[in-house]
């Protein structure tokens, strides 16, 4: 008898098969991806070594320093404003990125999904090319556009709109522009997938009931494509939160995000336990937002 | 769908405009970069006439040659390893109904998509550096291992999608004709699955080729790949050479993507 | 074609993990190694050199200390050499394998950070000052106030290189302190003044040569050689020597304890102490070297360059930064980390 048949008779064996076949992939992932995360968690509760590394002595200092700072001079303990402001900036920029990519992403996905079947593949291809293009290349490209002698400023000065170049590079705005640019395809693709399955007769029905276009958008379209919105938001929010390359290239080392702050601890800051604690915290934030997102989306799915 | 209304129900006000704007904004910087890669002269941002000068410079630069070779080696290994493992995992997790721990397998396989890359990079830096000290080996193996791991979900997804779309009648027929499970796999399942496998390998290849952060943290002496080499250039003088390398890499990506579309389109 | 060749050989060698004959892994500051000099070395010895960049002393130290880095030679700044020695990261040099050791100029032989040059040989040395684009700012450039309290014209246009030792010490001199000071009142003033100045800085980044030339930075705390290269591209750039005091640095080549290519490393060390080769290094990165007799091979423009030859009245303000005690370094790192975030 064929495999699926025997499988149905003995449910345990298909589980065993499933595990056996997946084992090599799982082992590799545990060795070279998931497992080391545990080491990070362990490092976060050790004592920092001279210059770098750790001493194998249990210490809460790493976690303590995430939230509090000891003044270098009078040893007074205060809330670590600087750390919190970096976290806050990262969260703020990530939310802003998610919103702006949604603003551009929804119309774009809608546009692609409503093209005739033949040209749809072409538009879809156009949106996937940047997605698969090296992140660094796209960040470089944006930098060339916004730097003082870049195209944007040259263009604006040429047409007399500004008298001297606007400083965009090395500001939070630059990082925001960069992240929006870099992560836009991540928003468009899941939105497209959701809209593609959308039954346009529902809009028809909406208009039949004398809904305005805005009401149709809010009351009919958005609720139905919500899973796509949720997926897109997760896909944009998570990498934005952990962004490293974009703020490093466009932020000029002054406007840090969590990713750069973590790297700082493993380099010039010479505080591996703090870096490990920050990494663990970032991981937790991501996990929590994932759980919240999936809860919200599954609830909506069951409701209709 | 009958269109009786005065306007097309599928259009929403302003959407087309924003969409076109999005495409323009998405491509303008890339197109500019490509154009400037053909720029003669030393400046990154002043046009000095059409020239292939910087392609020649990049092609003759030994550091670029080595980095390219290294990027390709790692990408080949990583895509082969991750695709092989992902194929097995996909066969193990699809088309056999639910089984205990299936969710755990999904979570582990998709983990690299969830965890911010910087965290994985830091974790691998800590882990591999102690392995390097313990074993004395500091070759490309670490990069290949790390790349293979984070490529698995990208290889897994198209293979799984393909498997789910395949019906089991052919395999049942083969088994009924007394083919061994291995023969069934070799002569029936694999040929049917092949487009998915190729698609998976291509995605893995691109993902490995483009990786910056994990490579930057894991690499040992003289192990720059093309992207980390480019990142290094940021600290030095940025020359149009970087534009030339970027354009070449871009062309390679588009080529692979076109092949990918071609492969996945050809069904059955 | 060569790519395919390299790729195939590397593909094969990567599988067996074997190292090719005649290799050398140099771990050096970015944009600091003359490609012509490396070409000449390879032509003469058959040894192929792989260069990996770092951007700060701490980055280099962290990577080396993590272990298994695979590097043979590293080029730390003077004050970091004793740290490498103390941690056993660099090996004592066997002078019998370096016949050219006698070429080291007398003033660089017995340096405080490496008595008798037992662990390192000179690479390049220079000063840390402030590069200013005179079309943007026309005032006095010989002062560290330019970044400690930027004048109106430079607000939001000045860059500060993220190299801790150089920047912190220049700031300490600005407040009238001595290098390695642990005077808390003074350090507090240093921190507060820098924290107040930071919002007026444009960035804290590398790549100063290019961005000064292109006008992306109107000014930058910068090294003299890099400023000279920027000035060659853009004549509006001048180099200021802060009269309040500025750090001098010397980067020296050292052999890592876990180097795999020791013989090749010695050949390289000996090679760079040849006056002609030392001059090649200097004429690329535009810093002075510490090899006697290299002047004869130096390009003419370097002998008179205002970035290399400090004006007499400001020459005395420059001083070498000694290796500070761990307690001082910890303080500086804390201030620095606070500043960076």
TrEMBL record, chain A:
Task: Please list the residue ranges annotated as the ABC transmembrane type-1 domain.
Answer: 87-293
Keyword Transmembrane annotated: yes
Q: Which PROSITE patterns match?
A: ABC_TM1
Annotated TM spans: 21-46, 93-114, 121-143, 174-195, 216-238, 272-293
Q: Which UniProt keywords apply?
A: Cell membrane, Membrane, Transmembrane, Transmembrane helix, Transport
Classification via Pfam families: BPD_transp_1 (PF00528)
- Recorded topology in the membrane: Multi-pass membrane protein
This protein's GO CC annotations: plasma membrane
Region forming the signal peptide: none
Kindly indicate whether the keyword Transferase belongs to this entry.
no
Q: Where in the cell is it found?
A: Cell membrane
Q: One GO BP annotation here? A: transmembrane transport
- The domain of life for this entry's organism is Bacteria
Q: Which family does it belong to?
A: Belongs to the binding-protein-dependent transport system permease family. CysTW subfamily.
Q: What is this protein called?
A: Spermidine/putrescine transport system permease protein
Automatic annotation (TrEMBL), chain B:
Per the record, what is one GO cellular component?
Answer: plasma membrane
Q: Give the residue spans that cross the bilayer.
A: 12-38, 72-92, 104-128, 140-159, 187-209, 244-263
Q: Which Pfam families match?
A: BPD_transp_1
Tell me how this protein sits in the membrane.
Answer: Multi-pass membrane protein
For this chain's UniProt record, which GO biological process terms are given? transmembrane transport
* Similarity annotation: Belongs to the binding-protein-dependent transport system permease family. CysTW subfamily.
Protein's UniProt name: Spermidine/putrescine transport system permease protein PotC
Originating species: Sulfitobacter marinus
UniProtKB/TrEMBL annotation, chain C:
Q: Name one GO cellular component term.
A: periplasmic space
InterPro entries membership: SBP, Sperm_putr-bd
A GO molecular-function descriptor:
polyamine binding
UniProt keywords (A-Z) are:
Periplasm, Signal, Transport
Q: Which domain of life is it from?
A: Bacteria
Task: Write the signal peptide boundaries.
Answer: 1-20
Keyword Electron transport on entry? no
Subcellular localization is given as: Periplasm
Q: What's any GO biological process attached to this entry?
A: polyamine transport
Q: What does this protein do?
A: Required for the activity of the bacterial periplasmic transport system of putrescine.
Q: Which family does it belong to?
A: Belongs to the bacterial solute-binding protein PotD/PotF family.
The UniProt entry, under PANTHER family, shows:
NORSPERMIDINE SENSOR, SPERMIDINE/PUTRESCINE-BINDING PERIPLASMIC PROTEIN
This protein's name: Putrescine-binding periplasmic protein
Q: Which organism encodes this protein?
A: Sulfitobacter marinus
């Amino acid at each position: 008898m064929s495999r699926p048949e025997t499988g149905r008779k003995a449910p345990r064996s298909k589980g065993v098969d499933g595990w056996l076949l997946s084992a090599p992939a799982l082992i590799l992932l545990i060795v070279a991806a998931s497992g080391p995360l545990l080491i990070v968690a362990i490092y976060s509760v050790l004592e920092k070594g001279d210059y770098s590394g750790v001493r194998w002595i249990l210490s809460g200092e790493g976690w303590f320093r995430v939230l509090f700072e000891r003044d270098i001079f009078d040893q007074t303990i205060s809330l670590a404003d600087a750390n919190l402001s970096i976290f806050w900036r990262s969260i703020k920029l990530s939310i802003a990125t998610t919103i702006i990519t949604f603003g551009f992403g929804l119309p774009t996905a809608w546009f692609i999904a409503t093209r005739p079947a033949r040209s749809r593949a072409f538009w879809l291809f156009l949106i996937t090319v940047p997605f698969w293009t090296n992140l660094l290349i796209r960040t470089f490209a944006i930098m060339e556009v916004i730097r003082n002698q870049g195209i944007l400023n040259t263009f604006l000065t040429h047409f007399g709109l500004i008298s001297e170049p606007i400083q965009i590079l090395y500001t939070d705005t630059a990082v925001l522009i960069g992240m929006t640019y870099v992560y836009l395809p991540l928003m468009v693709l899941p939105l497209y997938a959701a809209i593609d399955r959308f039954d346009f007769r529902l809009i028809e029905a909406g208009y039949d009931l004398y809904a305005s276009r805005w009401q149709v958008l809010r009351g009919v379209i958005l609720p139905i494509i919500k899973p796509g919105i949720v997926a897109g938001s997760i896909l944009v929010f998570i990498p934005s939160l952990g962004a490293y390359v974009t703020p490093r290239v466009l932020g000029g080392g002054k406007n840090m995000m969590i990713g750069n702050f973590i790297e700082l601890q493993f380099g010039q800051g010479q505080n591996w336990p703090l870096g490990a604690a920050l990494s663990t915290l970032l991981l937790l934030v991501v996990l929590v937002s994932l759980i919240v997102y999936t809860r919200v989306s599954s609830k909506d799915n069951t409701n209709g | 769908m009958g269109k009786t209304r005065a306007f097309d129900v599928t259009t929403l006000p302003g959407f087309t405009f924003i969409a076109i704007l999005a495409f323009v904004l998405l491509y303008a910087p890339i197109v500019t970069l490509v154009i400037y890669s053909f720029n003669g002269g030393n400046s990154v941002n002043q046009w000095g006439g059409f020239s292939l000068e910087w392609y020649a410079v990049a092609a003759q630069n030994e550091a670029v040659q080595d980095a390219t070779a290294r990027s390709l080696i790692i990408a080949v290994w990583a895509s082969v390893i991750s695709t092989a493992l992902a194929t097995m995992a996909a066969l193990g997790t699809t088309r056999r109904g639910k089984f205990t721990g299936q969710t755990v397998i999904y979570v582990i396989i998709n983990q690299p998509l969830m965890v911010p890359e910087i965290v994985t990079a830091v974790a691998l830096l800590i882990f591999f550096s102690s392995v390097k000290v313990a074993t004395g080996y500091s070759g490309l193996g670490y990069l290949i291992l790390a790349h293979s791991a984070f490529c698995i979900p990208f290889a897994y997804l198209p293979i799984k999608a393909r498997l789910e779309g395949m019906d089991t009648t052919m395999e049942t027929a083969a088994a009924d004709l007394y083919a061994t499970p291995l023969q069934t796999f070799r002569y029936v399942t694999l040929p049917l699955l092949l487009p998915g496998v190729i698609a998976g390998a291509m995605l893995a290849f691109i993902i490995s080729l483009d990786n910056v952060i994990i490579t930057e943290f894991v690499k040992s002496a003289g192990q720059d790949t093309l992207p980390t080499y480019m990142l290094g250039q940021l600290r030095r003088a940025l020359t149009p050479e970087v534009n030339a390398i970027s354009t070449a890499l871009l062309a390679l990506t588009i080529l692979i993507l076109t092949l990918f579309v071609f492969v996945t389109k050809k069904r059955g | 074609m060569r790519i395919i060749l390299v790729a195939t050989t590397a593909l094969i060698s990567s599988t067996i993990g074997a190292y090719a004959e005649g290799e050398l892994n140099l771990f050096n500051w970015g944009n600091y190694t003359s490609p012509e000099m490396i070409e000449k070395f390879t032509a003469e010895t058959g040894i192929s050199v792989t260069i990996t960049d770092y951007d700060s002393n701490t980055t280099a130290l962290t990577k080396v200390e993590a272990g298994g880095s695979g590097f043979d030679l590293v080029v730390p700044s003077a004050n970091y050499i004793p740290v490498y020695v103390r941690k056993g990261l660099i090996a004592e040099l066997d002078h019998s394998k370096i016949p050219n050791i006698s070429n080291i100029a007398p003033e660089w032989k017995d340096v405080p950070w490496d008595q008798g040059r037992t662990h390192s040989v000179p690479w390049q040395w220079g000063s840390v000052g402030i590069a200013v684009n005179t079309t943007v700012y026309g005032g006095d450039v010989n002062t560290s106030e330019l970044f400690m309290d930027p004048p109106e014209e430079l607000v939001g246009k000045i860059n500060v290189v993220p190299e801790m030792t150089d920047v912190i010490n220049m700031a300490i001199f600005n407040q009238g302190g001595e290098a390695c000071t642990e005077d808390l009142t003074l350090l507090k003033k240093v921190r507060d003044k820098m924290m107040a100045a930071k919002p007026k800085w444009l960035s804290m980044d590398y790549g100063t040569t290019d961005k000064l030339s292109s006008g992306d930075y109107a000014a930058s705390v910068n090294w003299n050689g890099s400023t000279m290269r920027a000035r060659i591209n853009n004549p509006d750039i001048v180099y200021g020597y802060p009269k309040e005091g500025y750090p001098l640095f010397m980067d020296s080549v050292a052999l890592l304890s876990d180097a795999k290519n020791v013989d090749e490393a010695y050949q390289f060390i000996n090679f760079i102490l040849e006056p002609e080769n030392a001059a090649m290094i200097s004429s690329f990165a535009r810093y002075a070297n510490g090899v006697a007799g290299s002047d004869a091979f130096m390009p003419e423009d370097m002998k008179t360059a205002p970035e290399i030859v400090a004006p007499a009245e400001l020459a005395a303000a420059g001083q070498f930064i000694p290796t500070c005690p761990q307690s001082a370094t910890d303080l500086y790192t804390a201030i620095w980390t606070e500043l960076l975030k």
